[in-house]
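Colleagues,

For the teaching module next term, I've prepared a clean inverse folding example: a structure given as tokens, and then the sequence designed for it. I'd like students to try predicting residues themselves before seeing the answer, so please don't circulate the second half yet.
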């Protein structure tokens, strides 16, 4: 009985989060919570296997790997920033990896520095808030990274009625290389689907652009790739991913006899999960299909995606701040009572 109880203590949480992930994924794969469930399951599984089958000598390498990992990540992010700036020029967007690296260094050194300079208790209290907010930030970052890869790798063998191509900027009146990659990916999918789905080019006209992204995409498909004009529908009003999907949904609703259509969302691979999640929000049955992104640019792009998803799913940060405020309030009450 004791052995069974011990096994349940080790494997019970693993089974629970594994089943929770499977249930949530089967119900709706385009949910951020799936990333959390999957990552917790993987951490618990690795830990339980280490306790069950691991040897004592394995503990030191694991601890060393955990200690060295932040240093490796910081070095990689700084190196990546130099590489991206060399290709794309300096901007806030291209500096994001370096900003994250600096934030990681400050986060790691925060409490040692406060201890060395004998910081007042109120500053240490604020640092504790940053500590817990940071733990969630880095955990959810890893969770999204893992789940985004998992979501993109899943095989998709469906019939699509529509293929939505998300805009990604113009170079003059032509698609940028990034956008052309999305268009070419959509063309390959369209051919695989025996050229039956309608292609929806989606993207408005920026203040510094001569034509809309949708028009540039339409010209590329029709004039250069010889796609029949009646196979391409244009959505040229949107300025964000969410608007891409809302306005494209209106077009699909108008061209469909019923709402039981399915579409593919073709975008860059780093952007697939957020586009699919937004599609779920607006009520579109869709699968995300990713086009290739140059390796040097991928970390920068993914950090931007993570920030956007974190803003959309900010409730954990609010909850953590709420508990912190509650603890501060309790301490203040105790102080004044005594």
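(Answer key — instructors only)
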């Amino acid at each position: 009985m004791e052995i069974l109880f011990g096994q349940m203590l080790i494997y019970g949480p693993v089974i629970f989060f594994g089943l929770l992930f499977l249930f949530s994924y089967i119900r709706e794969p385009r949910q951020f919570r799936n990333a959390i469930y999957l990552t917790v399951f993987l951490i618990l599984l690795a830990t339980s296997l280490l306790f069950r089958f691991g040897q004592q000598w394995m503990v030191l390498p694991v601890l060393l790997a955990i200690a060295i990992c932040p240093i490796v990540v910081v070095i990689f992010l700084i190196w990546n920033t130099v590489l991206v700036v060399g290709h794309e020029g300096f901007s806030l967007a291209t500096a994001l990896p370096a900003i994250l690296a600096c934030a990681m260094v400050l986060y790691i050194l925060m409490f040692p520095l406060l201890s060395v300079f004998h910081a007042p208790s109120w500053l240490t209290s604020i640092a504790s808030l940053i500590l817990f907010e940071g733990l969630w930030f880095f955990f959810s970052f890893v969770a999204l990274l893992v789940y985004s890869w998992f979501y993109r790798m899943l095989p998709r063998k469906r019939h699509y009625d529509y293929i939505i191509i998300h805009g990604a900027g113009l170079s003059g009146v032509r698609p940028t290389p990034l956008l052309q990659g999305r268009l070419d990916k959509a063309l390959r999918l369209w051919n695989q689907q025996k050229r039956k789905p309608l292609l929806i080019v989606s993207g408005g006209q920026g203040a510094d652009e001569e034509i809309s992204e949708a028009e540039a995409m339409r010209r590329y498909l029709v004039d250069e790739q010889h796609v029949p004009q009646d196979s391409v529908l244009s959505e040229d009003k949107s300025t964000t991913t969410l608007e891409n999907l809302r306005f494209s949904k209106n077009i699909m609703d108008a061209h469909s006899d019923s709402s039981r259509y399915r579409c593919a969302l073709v975008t860059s691979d780093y952007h697939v999960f957020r586009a699919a999640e937004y599609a779920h929000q607006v009520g579109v049955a869709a699968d995300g299909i990713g086009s290739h992104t140059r390796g040097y640019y991928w970390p920068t792009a993914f950090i931007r995606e993570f920030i956007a998803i974190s803003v959309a799913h900010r409730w954990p940060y609010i909850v953590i701040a709420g508990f912190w405020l509650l603890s501060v309030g309790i301490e203040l009450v105790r102080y004044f009572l005594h």
